[in-house]
Structure formats: C-alpha cells, structure tokens
Amino acid sequence: AHERVVSVFRDPVLLLHTTRSWDFLDMQSGFRPDGGAPQASGDVIIGVIDTGIWPESPSFNDDGMGDVPSRWRGLCMQGPSFKKSSCNKKLIGARYYGDQLGLVAPNASLARVALSTGSPRDDVGHGTHCASTAAGAIVEGANYYGLAWGAAKGGAP
Fold first, then answer.
1. Of the segments 31-40, 77-86, 100-109, 111-120, which one has the largest average pLDDT value?
2. Which first-to-last residue range defines the signal peptide (predicted)?
3. Which of 16, 73, 85, 136 has the most CB atoms less than 10 A away?
4. What is the pTM of this model?
5. 96-118 average pLDDT score
6. In degrees, to the nearest 5, what angle opens at C-alpha 126 toward C-alphas 71 and 77?
7. How far apart are CA 36 and CA 156, in angstroms?
8. Least confident of 4-8, 86-90, 102-106, 144-148
9. Are 52 and 121 in contact (CB under 8 A)?
10. In the predicted model, is pLDDT for residue 109 greater than 70?
11. What does the alpha-carbon distance between residue 47 and residue 49 come to, in Å, rounded to a whole number?
C-alpha cells in the first residue's frame, strides 16, 4: 500500500539445493529443462554488483574458455588482496565501488563490510555465491559438509 511500491509478489517456499539451484527455477521463465540458461548467440557477459568476488573459487576457473569478448570495456581493479592478475578469461572484470554502495544501501551490513575492504575481494562470500550461481564453471564433487554431492554449476557455466 506504499505509494512508491508498484507491486509485490509472494515468493514460493523452496527447498535449498546447494548443487541443484537451477533444478527448482520455473522452466517457463526461459531456462532450459536441462538446467541451463537460455541459448544465446555469441558471447554472454554477466555482471553482478554485490559484496565482491573470490577469484580463487573453482567456479571461476577459465579452462576451456575462449578469448575475452572484444566488446568488453571493463577492468580488473587492484586492491588489498586482489591483483589485476586475479581476473582471467572467465572472471573478466572486478571493480570496487567504494562509497557508491553506501548511497544505495547505507544501513545494510553487507554494504558496510564491502565498503571497509577497499577491494573487489569478497570477504563476506555473498557476491561469490551469487556470481557462481549465475555463471560458475562446472565443479565436480561439490558438497555441503558431505551432503548434496554433485557437480555444481552456474546457469551459464
């Protein structure tokens, strides 16, 4: 009923599936029944604005990746615990936005942590989780403390 809210939809209750995120997405949303993202022609660049990225995660291994798309105009920003060489053909850019995050979410605890690092390095884990869910490479033998063994992969690995 707030004047600045256009609409609100109740989310269905879903079970957590650590290696099966794409199994419970609504297939009518355009995702393929085999668990992948919609087919795209050419290269796909996915951008995630969050708490940062942990480039050493196996989800961002660039084995088998082609060259960085020629239209890419981003950068791999250096900061504490994050070198330009942390980026590769899979993780093609990383940036720290500093105080700009505080303008968007001045009271959010994740934003305050991200603001304090001065680096694209994800010291919280949320940004890495979201980025790997969207575009993580296939990681065999993924599990959660010995449960839910399987191959973890993003929607567009």
1. 77-86
2. none
3. 136
4. 0.69
5. 57
6. 40
7. 6
8. 102-106
9. yes
10. no
11. 7
Looking at this protein, which amino acid is placed at residue 74?
Answer: G
Of 69, 7, 76, the residue nearest 44 (C-alpha): 69
CA atoms of 122 and 135, how far apart (whole Å)? 16
The three-class DSSP label of residue 116 is helix
What is the three-class DSSP state of 76? strand
- Name the helix (H) or strand (E) containing 11: none
Tokens 């957590």 belong to 16
pLDDT for the residue 96: 87
How far is Cα 134 from Cα 32, in angstroms, rounded to an integer?
Answer: 14
Q: How far apart are CA 156 and CA 65, in angstroms?
A: 12
Yes or no: say if 136 and 37 are a contact pair by the CB < 8 Å rule: no
Q: φ, ψ for residue 29 (rounded to 5)?
A: -80, 5
The whole-number pLDDT of residue 12 equals 74
